[in-house]
Amino acid sequence: MNIKSRILIIFSAITVFSCDVLNDAAEILTTDPGTSTPALTNAEVISGLKEALNVGIKNSVDITSVTDGFLGNPEIRLPFPEDAIKVKQKALDWGLDGQVEKFETTLNRAAEEACKEALPIFKDAILKMSISDGFAILNGGNGAATKYLKDNTTTALKQAFRPKVDAAISTVKLTDYWEPIITKYNSAMTFTGGEKLNPDLNEYVTDKAIIGLFHMVEKEENKIRLDPMARVSDILQKVFGSLDK
Description:
Blueprint: H1 3-30, H2 42-64, H3 85-93, H4 97-114, H5 118-127, H6 131-138, H7 144-171, H8 174-192, H9 201-226, H10 234-241
């Protein structure tokens, strides 16, 4: 065999060997270690997380923005303002039970109305999710997606909720129930020397509505993470199924 033939054979062997190495490397990169299951691509991770968040936020807004969404849910029901809890007790002592009940009902009705504004704000934050955001959320454990939404939407939610809360409080004449209670309480404080109170109801309802909404979003997120039956599409099953291994 001449030198030219030998060189050709050696070159062919190197080429074949190189192709085998590249194929093996590609297989390692596109499969999970120890399995033949294709690994998740960046696009699949983002797609799966966006779908999970869309499912979660829609379910949460649907739950909270209806009549009794807050009032009928003991997990998120707005109580009498904590700063004025002494006012509530005094009102009950004075026989103003009906006004206290109406007051608490209207607080929750205002929260329910405000939550109708949340969906487009959440969706905008989801559209802006980056690849690094996606992998941090996927591997961040329970509540990671909710934290992402909190970090990226709370300011916008407050701006959107406040006018709705103001309008809801005005429409149902919340101050008609509040002012007699707080006025009588403050009058009593004049004689006893106690501290008078005048909490900002609008801010209270806005903040509590957002806290309650995020509580429901996190429940929906964790349901998808932990319950295979809640993964209602192929991409959700693939992305969150990868966490079960």
